[in-house]
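$ run holo --ligand "iron/sulfur cluster" --emit tokens
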Amino acid sequence: MKLQTYSLHNYKTLPQISALTSEQLEAIEVVGNVLPFKTNNYVVNELIDWDNIDRDPMFKLTFPQRDMLSKNHYSLMWNTLAATRNKEAIKTVANRIRNELNPHPAGQLEYNVPSREGKKLMGIQHKYRETVLFFPSQGQTCHAYCTFCFRWPQFVGMEEFKFAGKESNLLIEYLREHPEVTDVLFTGGDPIIMKAKLLEGYIQPLLDAGLPNLQTIRIGTKALSYWPYKFTSDDDAGDMLALMERVIKKGINLSIMAHFSHPVELGTEAVKLAIKRLRSCGVQIRTQSPVLKHINDSPEIWAEMWRKQVNLNCIPYYMFIPRDTGAQDYFAISLERAWHIFRGAYQKVSGVCRTVRGPSMSCTPGKVQLLGVSEVHNEKVFVLRMLQGRNPDWAGRPFFARYDSKAIWIDDLKPAFAQERFFFEQELELILDEMTGIIELNSLE
Ligand SMILES: *Cc1c(COP(=O)(O)O)cnc(C)c1O
Ligand code: SF4
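-- output --
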């Protein structure tokens, strides 16, 4: 199978496009000029059900929908497109709208990028003690774009510098200087967009460096959902698997952090074969997805997804709450609803599926899991738990917030029991102040 991608300039050549109404086509044009849009022949032919397009989750996952922009933003872009074909003029308006969509949630750029000898190490993020994120510069795109993606600014060319590392040498030096780090997580974009040779250029030096602290290499990818041929029939599929096998032979655990948002992504012959190949060379596959309105907001969908994953030898890992960015209003559900979905699904499956944790928010202090709604001394509360903390000491700590049926993100929550702050807030302020200090020093250079 040869990869054929579709975006704003060529989607009209898709034969299936005749299944769409003029409203849907208009939405693709208008929203697609603001948010990223890319899909491909596998998604279109194997995953989208064109006979049920109004409800189809994979269509909503990769094609722009009208309600992904507010009415104001939509008409602003609609009017712009009606008035001009000038690319620069359209881009100016698009960027104005994008800037109102919280393009940099949870202080990723300010707070997670480490410094070395007074310079920011772009391409590396280090938030939790054991795990470093690495953004290989050649892996910053994807086989298709998810309409909910919080990395969207880098796909529309908004990022002045993508989170991108030029080379793995810097990474190796960083790992040498930080023996507490056990895990490197390759992320993007999608690092599996790279040819095997290119990926090898990043991974082989890590193996050759003989770092005693490096225990696990993780690769975050949606290739199993959007282009499973990467591991089966692409020219370099064999080299890709051989590379992974080399990692494992070296005694390093290799874990694919696979993004699956809907059971349909687990149903094709291509994805089943890809998973089988990866598993036979010893690669672990862990799965994660945000819980999204219009895509997977029911306990049945999640239960089916986890069961299918376990049957295919994958380990359910995280259910996320979508970040407050981009088309969040379209996808957002209340925290309480997310918990009901999680719990409803959790109750339906056996213990082998219950390796999953969630629903979890990746926010400035850490990863915060909503354990549930409860009542303590007549006060209705959310019971929360820090799964990961910017301070490692916070991990595993339970805490309480006032119950709020409308809350969709941690920013909406207030501490319970008339407390003024959450247990981590004061310390978090100090940590962040210190980091801002570093950034200001740098910008004086
Ligand atoms: C989620 C995440 C990780 C990995 O956390 P695990 O709980 O070990 O999977 C690492 N860094 C950042 C910034 C993250 O958001
Ligand atoms: S595959 Fe991942 S990085 Fe790429 S668009 Fe989807 S969510 Fe974003």
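-- notes --
The domain at 105-444 is CATH 3.20.20.70 (TIM Barrel).
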